[in-house]
Model the fold of this input.
Amino acid sequence: MTLSILLIVSAALFSVGLLAALSRRHAIFILIGIEMMLAAANINFIAFWRFAPEPAQPLGVMIAIFAIAIAAAEAAVGLAMVIAVYRHFRTTNVDQLNQLKG
Amino acid sequence: MSNAAFVIISILTLAAALAAATLPKLMHAALSFAVMFLGISALFFLLGAEFVGLVQIFIYIGAVAVLIVFTILLTRHDLGKVRGFNWGGGVVPVAVFGGLMWAILKTKSVSIPPPHIQPVTVQRIGELLMTSYVWPLMCVGVLLTTALIGALILVLEEKRE
Done:
């Protein structure tokens, strides 16, 4: 196991998340894709912390913990927005939410 | 640190991620999402970041996955109708993956084995959170409170005139 293999796994996870966020038409799938991309970034933080020479502070671990907390806040607000949009428009298909289109 | 465990966990995680991104049924995708985060937590355990792995399991499988399932059940009115999958959106992820692979394989200094380092204990993380990282901790507290209030206000019933 070298650092480059971990980085490749994380890049693949990021690409799959991007695929979910760009291709799916359901709002919840877009949020799932964004969570996947954040998790891929976390893997990179932990991997660079693990493979670096012994640091004075475990900076990568701390950043990953804060990133997880912020991702949880983002998921809560995002899912509340999905419910609010569903109540108003009776749909969660992002293609039908085109009220601002000229 | 065993290589076989790493390969198995990576393949499981990526397969679950791909299933979560492409399965047509929302509930199956939500379950694959939980399996994917279990795999990522196992990866963190393998890398020696046990606390982050545990936090990941608590927050993602305990809270976010349950929240996603609740949202699916609350908006199940159009579960059958939203099946769209736009393959045109697949070009950008493939291009991004190709670019990242090129950059990773070109950089020779990242193909290194892991050095031996001291494991980071929960006590050390707690000390750091209360000393060096106390301001970020307070900011995250304010952010979580704001997100809680914002989510509540967003899902309040609209007034009908």
